[in-house]
Design a protein that fits this description.
The complex is a heterodimer of chains A (315) and B (253). Chain A has 315 residues and is mainly alpha-helical. Chain A is 70% helix and 4% strand. In chain B, β9 and β10 form a beta hairpin. Classes of the chains: A mainly alpha (315), B alpha/beta (253). At the A-B interface, α7 and α8 of A face α2 of B. Chain A: It is a multi-pass membrane protein.
Chain lengths: 315, 253
C-alpha cells in the first residue's frame, strides 16, 4: 500500500486510546457519558476546520486564515439572518458562498500566481480579521432555526448525547476519506503534494487540483461556521483567534506530514480529539491549564519528529 | 516508409539565445535512435519540443506523416508519445501501481465508478503487475511497494514500464542510465531493447557512448542547435561520433 495513506491513523488512534485509558484510570470523572459526549461536541468546530487544513497541507501548503475565513463567514450569515431578516437557510448559503469564494481566491493566488501559501494565507488572515471588525465589533446573536439545527440531538445508550453536529463531522470525515483514498481527485491531491512537477508531467492539471483544494477547504470552513452556531448562537469577530494554529496542531498530531503528500483526514480529526482529551483529562486530574498547553506543545514536536524519523527511515 | 516521428526546421529561442536553430529529426519505425550532443547543443530543447513540453517558434512536428501541434506534454501523451524524464516524474510516497496509473486512473465499472467516481484499485494493480511481467521486469517484488522504498534502478524501471505501457507510438528517454550503476544500467538497456522488440521505437538521449553503441540502431548527432549527422554505430566508431559532436569532423547530414 502507498506510504502516502498507509494506515496514517493508526498512530494517532493508539495515542488517543492511550490517553483515554490513562485518564480513565487516573480520574474518576473522565470516563463518564457526559464528559465523553462533551468532548465530542467540543471537537466539531476545530475538527471541521482541521479537515480543510489537512487538504491544504497535503498539497504542501498551509492555511493561516482558516479561522478568519470561518469567522467572517459566520458574521455575514448572522447579520443577514438577524439585521437584514434574510431566512436563515438562505443566509447560511450566503456564508458558504463567501467562504468558498475566499478559498477560491486564496487558491488562485497559490496556483495561478505561484505565491507561497504561507504568505497568501498570512495576508488573508490580516485582511480578514480587520474586515470582520470593520463589519461589526459586536457579538451577534442568532435565533433558533436552521442555523442552530446542528445543536439538536438525541440520547444513545441512556445518557450518551449525540448531536447532529457530531454526526455531521463524522460523516464529513468519512466522505473526505473516501474522496482522498478512492478517487482520482484524491490521488492527484497526494501527487501534487509529493512532487508538483512530476504530477504535471503525469498529465495532472496541478493548478486545477490546487484550486479545488482551496475551494473545498473554504466550503469546509463555512461548514465549521455552521457547526459553531450549533455550539453557540453568539458570533463575535474575536472568536476562534487561534483556530489556525489549533488546526495545524491537530493535523500534525494526526500524522499528516507538513511536507505534503502524506497523511489523511481521519488522523486530523483524531488529532483534534487528542488535544481535547488531554485538556479534559488534565483538568479532571486537577492540573493547571498551563500544563495542558505544555503537553499539547510537546505532543506537536513529538509528532513532527516522528514524521521526520519515518520519512528518513524509508529513504 | 514514412518515419514515425519527424521534425522539420525547428527553431526555439530563449531571449537572445537560440537553443534550436532549424533542427531536423527523424525516427523510423522499430528503431532505437540515440540522440547525442555536447552540453548546450540543444538536445534537451529538441526533445522538449517532441514531447510537447516546449512550443517551438518555427518548424513543424509530424507524427506518422501528419503535422501535430502539442501544447503540453499531455497532448503528446494522448498522441501516444511517452517521455521518461531524467527525474522520472514519480510520486515517491505512492506505490508502483498508483504511479503507473497516475493521471489515468481506472474507475470501477457501474454506478460506483460513475456516481462515486470510485477507483478500481484491484484492476490497476493487476494490470500493472501484468505490464511488469510482460516487460520482464523481475526486480520489483511487490506492486504495492512505495516508490521511495525502491533503488534508483527499480525506480527507473517503474518509469520505463509506465512509458512502455502507454507509449503506443514513441517512447522518449532522457539519460535513463545517468544515475545508475553497471548492473542496473544493463537492465535498463535490456528494457529499451524489449520495448523496441515490441514494435515501439525509442528515442534515447544519452551521454554514455558505450551504452549508445550497445543499443542504438542509428545515432542522431546534435551540434550547435542543429542535426549535424545521423550515423550507424556499425559503420562509425565512438571516436567518429565524438569528432562530429565537437566539430572536429564534418559529415553531410
Amino acid at each position: 500500500m502507498d506510504t502516502a495513506f498507509r494506515n496514517p491513523a493508526i498512530g494517532p488512534l493508539a495515542a488517543l486510546l492511550l490517553a483515554v485509558a490513562v485518564f480513565t484510570v487516573t480520574t474518576d470523572t473522565f470516563m463518564s457519558v457526559d464528559n465523553v459526549s462533551l468532548i465530542l461536541q467540543q471537537s466539531v468546530v476545530i475538527g471541521t476546520l482541521a479537515l480543510g487544513q489537512t487538504l491544504i497541507i497535503l498539497t504542501r501548503g498551509i492555511d493561516l486564515a482558516n479561522g478568519a475565513i470561518m469567522v467572517l463567514g459566520a458574521l455575514v450569515v448572522a447579520q443577514l439572518a438577524t439585521g437584514a431578516g434574510v431566512p436563515q437557510g438562505i443566509a447560511l448559503l450566503a456564508g458558504f458562498a463567501v467562504c468558498g469564494g475566499l478559498g477560491l481566491l486564496a487558491g488562485g493566488a497559490v496556483s495561478r500566481l505561484s505565491l507561497p501559501p504561507f504568505i497568501v494565507t498570512l495576508g488573508f488572515l490580516t485582511v480578514l480579521q480587520a474586515a470582520s471588525r470593520l463589519h461589526t465589533r459586536e457579538t451577534v446573536l442568532v435565533e433558533e432555526g436552521p442555523l442552530t439545527f446542528l445543536a439538536q440531538g438525541g440520547y444513545l445508550f441512556g445518557q450518551f448525547q449525540v448531536t447532529v453536529g457530531v454526526a455531521l463531522v463524522l460523516i464529513t470525515v468519512a466522505v473526505l476519506h473516501f474522496a482522498l483514498t478512492r478517487t482520482s481527485w484524491g490521488r492527484h491531491v497526494y501527487a501534487v503534494g509529493n512532487d508538483a512537477k512530476a504530477a504535471m508531467r503525469c498529465g495532472i492539471n496541478v493548478n486545477r487540483v490546487l484550486l479545488s483544494v482551496y475551494l473545498l477547504a473554504g466550503l469546509l470552513y463555512a461548514l465549521a461556521a455552521w457547526q459553531a452556531f450549533g455550539r453557540s448562537p453568539a458570533t463575535s469577530p474575536n472568536a476562534f483567534p487561534t483556530a489556525n494554529l489549533d488546526t495545524i496542531t491537530a493535523v500534525v498530531i494526526g500524522g499528516t506530514s507538513l511536507f505534503g503528500g502524506r497523511g489523511g483526514v481521519i488522523g486530523s480529526y483524531l488529532g483534534a480529539l487528542i488535544v481535547l482529551v488531554l485538556q479534559s483529562g488534565l483538568t479532571q486530574a486537577g492540573i493547571d491549564p498551563l500544563y495542558q498547553q505544555i503537553a499539547t506543545g510537546i505532543l506537536v514536536i513529538l509528532a513532527v519528529a516522528l514524521d521526520q524519523f519515518t520519512r528518513r527511515s524509508t529513504r | 516508409m514514412t518515419p514515425i516521428l519527424q521534425a522539420r526546421g525547428i527553431v526555439k529561442r530563449y531571449g537572445h539565445v537560440t537553443a534550436i536553430d532549424g533542427a531536423d529529426f527523424d525516427l523510423e519505425a522499430g528503431e532505437v535512435l540515440a540522440v547525442v550532443g555536447d552540453n548546450g547543443a540543444g538536445k534537451s530543447s529538441l526533445i522538449n519540443v517532441l514531447s510537447g513540453a516546449v512550443l517551438p517558434d518555427a518548424g513543424e512536428v509530424l507524427l506518422a506523416g501528419s503535422p501535430v501541434h502539442f501544447k503540453s506534454p499531455h497532448d503528446a501523451r494522448l498522441a501516444g508519445i511517452e517521455t521518461v524524464y531524467q527525474d522520472l516524474a514519480v510520486a515517491p510516497a505512492m506505490d508502483i501501481a498508483s504511479n503507473l496509473y497516475l493521471g489515468r486512473e481506472i474507475r470501477r465499472p457501474g454506478w460506483r465508478g460513475k456516481v462515486l467516481r470510485q477507483l478500481d484499485i484491484r484492476a490497476m494493480r493487476q494490470r500493472a503487475q501484468k505490464q511488469l511481467d510482460e516487460l520482464g521486469i523481475t526486480t520489483l517484488q511487490s506492486i504495492t511497494q512505495s516508490v521511495e522504498n525502491l533503488s534508483g534502478g527499480q525506480r527507473q524501471s517503474v518509469a520505463v514500464a509506465r512509458a512502455a505501457a502507454f507509449g503506443s507510438k514513441v517512447v522518449i528517454m532522457d539519460e535513463p542510465t545517468a544515475a545508475l550503476g553497471v548492473r542496473e544500467s544493463a537492465q535498463v538497456l535490456e528494457l529499451i531493447g524489449t520495448i523496441r522488440d515490441r514494435g515501439i521505437p525509442v528515442v534515447l538521449i544519452s551521454h554514455n557512448m558505450p551504452h549508445v553503441f550497445q543499443i542504438a540502431d542509428r545515432i542522431h548527432i546534435h551540434r550547435l542547435g542543429k542535426r549535424a549527422a545521423v550515423v550507424s554505430p556499425r559503420e562509425h566508431t565512438m571516436n567518429d561520433v565524438v569528432a562530429i559532436m565537437t566539430g572536429a569532423t564534418e559529415l553531410a547530414a
